Amino acid sequence: QVQLVESGGGLVQAGGSLRLSCAASGRTFSSYAMGWFHQAPGKEREFVAAINWSGGSTNYADSVKGRFTISRDNAKNTMYLQMNSLKPEDTAVYYCAATRRILIGTATRQYDYWGQGTQVTVSS
User: Fold this and answer.
1) Using CA atoms, how far apart are residues 59 and 47, in angstroms rounded to an integer?
2) Helices (H) and strands (E) in the chain, counts
3) How many other β-carbons are positioned within 10 Å of the β-carbon of residue 11?
4) What is the pLDDT of residues 13-33, one digit of tens each?
5) Mapping DSSP to helix (H, G, I), strand (E, B) and coil, where does residue 42 land?
């Protein structure tokens, strides 16, 4: 089992940047594929980005391609989401998630463990 804690959210103006972190407990972090999702008020939780166990394979939602970068540091048990050129529509609670599946997924049902989320607010 793994426990996940997100940090790095906040209020930023449109066009600005934030870096989210997801710290994982346990000694088996490198065995999990990881993902970021976000959920805006009144909407379902949506896929943002995912990364495989080694960091060698990534996947992004079309809405964030070219603006967001997912990465991980297995030595630090931490995953990151660098968010650049932020837009008001990026405003949401951002969640990190972990799965033992080998293939990185884009559906919430494919992930086994979730953090509590961190709020990102982008003002226009």
Assistant:
1) 10
2) 0, 11
3) 12
4) 999 999 999 999 977 899 999
5) coil
